[in-house]
Amino acid sequence: MSLTQNWQCQDNAASTTIVASVGTDASVDGGANTSTLSVLDGPGSNFPRSLQFSGASYAINISNSLLSFASTVPFSICAWMKFTSLATNQPLMGQGSGTSGRFALNNTPQALTTFTGSDHTWSLPALTTGVWQHVFFSRAASNAVRVFLSGVESVTGSITIAETFGPNYAGKYGNTRLNGKICDIRVYNSDESANVVAIMALAGLGCPRQSMMHLRRQR
Q1: In terms of DSSP H, where are the helices of the chain?
Q2: How far apart are CA 72 and CA 156, in angstroms?
Q3: Please, which of 50, 76, 132, 214 could form a disulfide with 183 given CB 3.0 to 4.6 Å?
Q4: Does residue 27 contact residue 16 with C-beta atoms inside 8 Å?
Q5: Domains of the chain: which residue ranges?
Q6: Tens digit of pLDDT for each residue in 157-212?
Q7: 133-142: pLDDT as tens digits
Q8: Closest by alpha carbon to 109, among 82, 91, 89?
Q9: In whole angstroms, what is the distance from residue 127 CA to residue 138 CA?
């Protein structure tokens, strides 16, 4: 695995900094990381905390990490997310202005992304509010893109996208913001689609098989 950025979101201080365990620190956009944002609620024993956003304000500014992946460059992004509402699109990552460079989920249920061109969508297992779910998005050097929700691959299968993807926020694209909680945000400069369940298990939910079954039962 080539992990280049990892924000575990376990910070519990009145600071705008979100410390990176790997890579470059991020920051809270719109205010300090106070107790109203950092909550004692995470997906597993290794990540007992998370950042909580209201859908109306705040996001994670990751522009200092210079995330930009051109055509044929493999990469993977993922995070644990717990949605408070699915009334609007729920962003994992995106651009601060406009929709270009976004990856988000909605209650259709679908995952949708915009690179530098058209929207692309994937049909997913059912999204659920109030439950931790692992969201994973990966592109291979062949430009084949795959999407997984809690270890289960989209029924749509792979789509080939030969475009640049360069988000500068987590939990936001344009004026659309995450309404829920997020933690253990990861960026790999490699296609990690074969390691989704192993990455999920890092949260401390037990062995990978138990983790996936536990999440399926919650849905």
Answers
A1: 196-201, 208-218
A2: 21
A3: 50
A4: yes
A5: 3-218
A6: 778 999 889 999 999 999 899 999 999 999 999 999 999 999 999 999 865 444 44
A7: 999 999 999 9
A8: 89
A9: 19
Gap between the Cα atoms of 28 and 41, Å rounded: 18
Number of helices (H) and strands (E) in the chain: give both, helices first. Answer: 2, 19
Establish whether the linkage from the previous residue to 109 is cis, with ω within 30° of 0: yes
Residue 155's CB: how many other CB atoms inside 10 A?
A: 9
C-alpha dist (Å) from residue 167 to 7, 125, 207, 214: 15, 25, 32, 31
Query: In what helix (H) or strand (E) does residue 61 lie, and over which residues does it extend?
Result: strand 59-61
Domain 3-218 has CATH 2.60.120.200: yes
Ordered alpha helix ranges (H), 16-141: none
For the stretch 12-43, pLDDT in tens is: 888 889 999 999 999 998 778 888 899 999 99
